[in-house]
Model the fold of this input.
Amino acid sequence: MTHAAHNPCIVIPVFNHPDGIVWVCERLAAFELPVILVDDGSDPHCQQVLATLASEHEWISLRRFNDNRGKGAAVCAALLWAQQLGFSHALQVDADGQHDLEDVPRFLAASRAQPQAVVTGDRVAEGISATRHYGRKLTDWLVWLETLSLCISDSMCGYRIYPLQRTVALLQTRRIGQRMDFDTDILVRLYWRGLQVVQVKTRVIYRDGIPSHFRMLWDNLYMIRMHLRLLFGMLPRAPLLLLRKFTH
Done:
């Protein structure tokens, strides 16, 4: 893929972050990239905020689910739509404003340099709770086992760039986790398909007053189910994964 064919957009799943999404879009405007918002069944106030953003800015497109389907479902829809619109890559960011958007040029530069790779954030978290910290560590250890590699050190970061051709090909043949299990699930499966994972150190700030939509019981159950599937899926792939490990 040539530099000229690197045609990225930004995709953002949104569920009841009316203040955060305005702040995020204001800062993304400087990068002059098209933005695709997917409203994942937000309440009427957030719906109106999103509709206003889309009507006032021609570079913002909006798709809406009538009910909450989950972060993964919203991102999958955005990626499919992005490819249909002719984009080659999609930069996923969160709607709550916790990602350091000053790093967008670094993500784009890494993607242009290696356009067939997934470029994903490796978070330097500030203010993270002990529960989140150890939950992340457990997931990291499991991902190392599922990939038989140490090349992914933060599989849960939702700040990343997908090469759309290979990513959409995966989405069309495999159902990926539709909720908070999405980020890890798709990254491991793209790695299994031979995509290189390039990590970019980036700052994420966990601030008071930003609601979390992580459902402690159900999303943890989804994560457990996902890891069981990935661990069993790794077993027949183990010879190729080990060969890849020792030949690269």
Notes: The mean pLDDT is 90.
